[in-house]
Specification:
The radius of gyration is 20 Å and the shape is elongated. Helix content is 15%, strand content 36%. The strands form two sheets. A seven-stranded antiparallel beta sheet has the order 1-2-11-3-4-9-10, with no helix packed on it. By secondary structure, it is of the alpha+beta class.
Length: 165
């Protein structure tokens, strides 16, 4: 077994070195992310590090922690609100709230998570400078509708994401 590995490494060493060099070089600018939830349609995304997302772009950011995910977890969402945008929530009955950004519907907040834990509503009002409203079309998405995410600070943003497949 070890002999096979050794032969493979020696035979393809130049190719492996080129791939390693390419990976090291590109990792400064891009990273591949796998979406493990159903919140977005795609499963694999290419994140352009340091590229500021625009309205309706996919974006990756570091989660601030709390709830079911660890601090620093990478989230992928869609930018639905930019600084200066107006966020409102309208009660839709039974503890549900419909969220709007600049008058456009972005999602419905549930009173409880799938596990039954209560969910606090995210902020409303004017999105502050250097912040984003992030959302996803899935009704179970943990996004800016909830206080656990809230408005995403520009410092949390990794970059714009592009769906690969």
């Amino acid at each position: 077994m070890l002999i096979r590995i050794y032969r493979n490494l020696t035979k393809y060493a130049p190719a492996y070195l080129w791939l390693l060099t390419l990976w090291v070089f590109l990792s400064r600018y891009v990273v591949i992310s796998v979406n493990v939830s159903d919140s977005l349609p795609g499963k694999v995304y290419l994140i352009q590090k340091g590229v500021k997302p625009e309205l309706d772009d996919f974006a990756a950011f570091h989660y601030q922690g709390g709830g079911p995910y660890a601090t620093g977890s990478r989230f992928l969402k869609i930018v639905k609100g930019m600084p200066g945008g107006k966020v409102s929530a309208v009660e839709s009955g039974s503890g549900f709230f419909d969220f709007y950004v600049n008058g456009s519907f972005v999602g419905r907040a549930k009173p409880r998570s799938r596990t039954g834990s209560p969910l606090a509503l995210g902020p409303t009002g004017t999105i502050p400078s250097r912040h984003y409203y992030m959302a996803a079309p899935n009704p179970d998405s943990l996004d800016s509708r909830y206080a656990l995410v809230g408005w995403v600070d520009e410092g949390q943003v990794i970059g714009r994401a592009i769906e690969v497949f």
